[in-house]
Amino acid sequence: MQVGLAENPMIGCPALETGEHITAARKAFRELNAPFLTTVLEGAYPDFYLQQEGDDAPVFTDEEMKLIGAPLDFVGLNMFNPTLVRADANDPKGWSTVPLADSHPKMVMDWLSFWPEIAYWGPRFVKELWGVESVYITENGCAAKDKLNLKGEVLDTDRLLYLRRHFQQASRAVTEGWPLKGYFVWSMLDNFEWAHGYDRRFGIVYVNYTTLERTPKLSARFVQETIRSRSVV
Question: For every one of its 233 residues, what pLDDT tens digit does the chain have, with 9 covering 90 and above?
């Protein structure tokens, strides 16, 4: 049996893939995730984090910290959104975030912005920062307002685009030797989506909520063919 965690980290990505911005994004990845992922993988809360939290800093014992920092067999990353980073000599941290433009591509959820490179930089930085040898993308996908057409098909080209571009970046990570071992699309089936209820569909299989009939969407065919061919189709 293997034991790991699935975390929802902030995925720091370089706005430009040049040396100084990659270095800044790596540093930002560690600092942005100080309360959880960084602490678990380093076995200690970073000093800068405790200082910035002041009276709100977590209280813990050495024994609790030992348990928190116990070795993991794998690290899972639930990732949907980027945090774009650039090197910034005018910021004390040495980096700053780049706000997304008003017209930056989004999916149907207002909070879900399109930046497929998260599937590359997440696994890479987890390896570079903490030496993790087994990384899984435990959640990645997008909602859409899917509808059955007159032929009984769901042609979710928006989700197909989203998944293809993210799969390509995951393939890039694997090709370069970063330890990405698996990828779980969220979700196989349409489900109840928090405050949106049944109005937002994340599945690659369409669910008729009245009859419970299930119809594979175009994106499901894409995932199927990618697995079958062992390449991004």
Answer: 999 999 999 999 999 999 999 999 999 999 999 999 999 999 999 999 999 999 999 999 999 999 999 999 999 999 999 999 999 999 999 999 999 999 999 999 989 999 999 999 999 999 999 999 999 999 999 999 999 999 999 999 999 999 999 999 999 999 999 999 999 999 999 999 999 999 999 999 999 999 999 999 999 999 999 999 999 98
Q: Give the domain ranges of the chain.
A: 4-145+156-203
Q: Could you tell me the sign of the dihedral formed by the alpha carbons of 87, 113, 17, 184, in that order?
A: positive
Out of 3.40.50.1100, 3.90.25.10, 3.30.1510.10, 3.20.20.80, the CATH code matching 4-145+156-203 is 3.20.20.80
Dihedral, CA of residue 63, residue 29, residue 144 and residue 182, to nearest 10: -70
